[in-house]
Amino acid sequence: MLRLQMTLAALIILILPQTNQAVASTDVALRDAREATLPHEPDYDARVEEIYDQEARMFIILYSLGDNGQIDYITGRLVLEQSHNLYGNPVYATNEHPLFYWWNHVMWNDPEMDGVNGNERVYQRHIDFDLTRYAPCRFNGHNC
User: Fold this and answer.
1) DSSP states along 12-80
2) Which residues, other chains included, contact 139 with Cβ-Cβ below 8 Å and sequence gap of 6+?
3) Residue 143 confidence (pLDDT)
4) What CA–CA distance (Å, rounded) separates 31 from 39?
5) The predicted structure's pLDDT at residue 99
6) How many C-beta atoms surround the C-beta of residue 60 within 10 A?
7) Which residues have a Cβ under 8 Å from the Cβ of 64 and sit 6 or more positions away?
8) Which of 35, 59, 84, 93 gives the lowest tally of CB atoms within 10 Å of its CB?
9) Model pLDDT, residue 132
10) What was the pLDDT predicted at 4?
C-alpha cells in the first residue's frame, strides 16, 4: 500500500509540470502563429539602404515597408563572391534568397534560403537591427 501511494505521489508530481508545460507550449504555439506572418521580401523599390558586412560576408538590404524612410524590414544574404566593376564599384554575387530576416523585433533564419514560404525559423526574439555597427556616427545621433 505504501508503495502505491509513493507511485501515485510521483505520478501527480510528474503530471503537474507536464500540464504547466502544455500550457506554456500552447502559449508558445500561439506566439509563433502570430509571428508566422513574416511578410515576403519587399520589392527592390522599397529599399532604403544596402550594406556589405565584410566580417559576416553578408549583403544586407534595409527596407521601409511603409515607404516613409523608417527601416522596418531587413534581409541578409550570404555573399558568394565579391569583385569590382570597371569603375571600381563593388559587385556582390549572393544567393537568390536571404539567410536572415529582421522584422517586427524578431530575427528569422531560413537555412534552406528558399524565400518566405513558411519554413523560416525564429532565430531570436526581442531584437532590433543595430545600424550603429555600420555607421558609428549614428550612435551619437548624427546623420552620417
Assistant:
1) HHHHHHHHHHHHHHHHHHHHHHHHT-PPPPPPGGGEEEEEEETTTTEEEEEE-TTSSS---EEEEEEEE
2) 132
3) 66
4) 16
5) 97
6) 20
7) 46, 48, 70, 71, 72, 73
8) 84
9) 80
10) 38
pLDDT < 70 regions, the chain: 1-36, 136-144
Paired with 58 in beta bridges are 53, 78
Place of cell 538590404: 61
Tell me the pTM.
0.70
Residue 99 identity? L
CB 54 within 8 A of CB 112: no
pLDDT at 144: 61
Q: Which amino acid, one-letter code, is at 23?
A: V
CA 73 to chain centre: 10
Burial of 123 (0-12, 13-18, 19+ CB in 10 A): middle
Tell me the three state secondary structure of residue 103: strand
